[in-house]
């Protein structure tokens, strides 16, 4: 960084032409007509600076030396931009703090300047807090510090990316089991190492609303592990998962429900009870039903896994009456 020192003569008259002499580590050693001097700040430029002046047409008299200006030319460290939490990829709605840190600058009176994608008025604090991030907050962030008359270098740029809210994917293994066996649920979220906690629910049908609510499973409230084991399952049932991270905690949407099919009793995974389901699979209706299912598959309106679930339910209704 550079600094400019200016020597001014008060009440000297606007038409008077002045010459100037400087005293200091980084100034000229002879008289000059320039009333300012510019030099690069370094450790060798530290010291006291003074100036005096004389009229051009009078080489025998001059003013007194000015009061000394003391320059501390220590080299300022290059700052570092950090994120708290430290994730460079966050999701829409999350909160993150961008911080400017200068090594060895503790206790000094710093002001800060920011370069950022969204900052119209750069804050003078060493922290910039982004609350409920949006896609427009994506971009590069850098900072520099200022102390007295000197600026540090600009920090390296740290790039922040704001993504859409993730939707976890739930898998179950096995999806078909004998009554009393164990089943493992796995919940996958983008960037699994980024501090997620996992939440596990059972889908409970609400027949009056023709929908399902979610009932938290035992010890399923914020597990560090992305897998959950259900022991001794005897009913066909549906499950969902979710994830959260940060403080305050940011939550994903719920996953799509996944079903575990058991040869035991139905647990009413749909807002229809077993007699109604089995009536649909009775010989009187089954041929019509499978024709409709076949049409849905040909139109790509039904996934193969859903079709297999229909077959399982058909077999259950004919073997477990």
From TrEMBL:
GO cellular component terms given for this protein: external side of plasma membrane
The keyword Ribonucleoprotein is assigned to this record: no
One GO BP annotation of this record: cell surface receptor signaling pathway
Domain Ig-like: 1-72, 79-144, 168-241
Highest taxon in the source lineage: Eukaryota
Keywords on record: Disulfide bond, Signal
Pfam family, one: Ig_3
GO molecular function: transmembrane signaling receptor activity
Protein name: Ig-like domain-containing protein
Biological source species: Maylandia zebra (zebra mbuna)
